[in-house]
Design a protein that fits this description.
Strand content: under 5%
Shape: globular
Oligomer: single chain
Structural class: mainly alpha
């Protein structure tokens, strides 16, 4: 089971990075039809990533994916990065949002 948890953490981290990059492309889309198409693709990818996150939570992993040695290495709402799905019971994103 530990291998599955490690795999899911790595996959979700990669997915968060890919969704962040893709979101920038969606937002830069000038054509309304292109925007709708790309946004729909992004939404489907986000749903798939959320399913992986739910699986991770079902394996009783309930912490931030970016905590190392007790320190959060990436912000949830960073400018260059956004954490789109997270298994953490602690709402780090809410804390960050309130600090904005």
């Amino acid at each position: 089971m530990e291998k599955r948890i490690e795999y899911l953490i790595a996959r979700i981290r990669l997915g968060n990075a890919k969704l962040t990059t893709a979101w920038k492309v969606v937002c830069e889309q000038d054509d309304p039809e292109g925007f709708k198409r790309l946004a729909a693709q992004w939404d489907e990818a986000n749903k798939k990533l959320n399913t992986l996150c739910l699986e991770l939570m079902a394996l009783d992993y309930q912490d931030c994916l970016y905590i190392q040695d007790g320190i959060q290495t990436k912000k949830c709402l960073g400018g260059e990065f956004t954490c789109w799905v997270c298994p953490s019971k602690i709402s780090y994103w809410r804390q960050e949002f309130e600090e904005l």
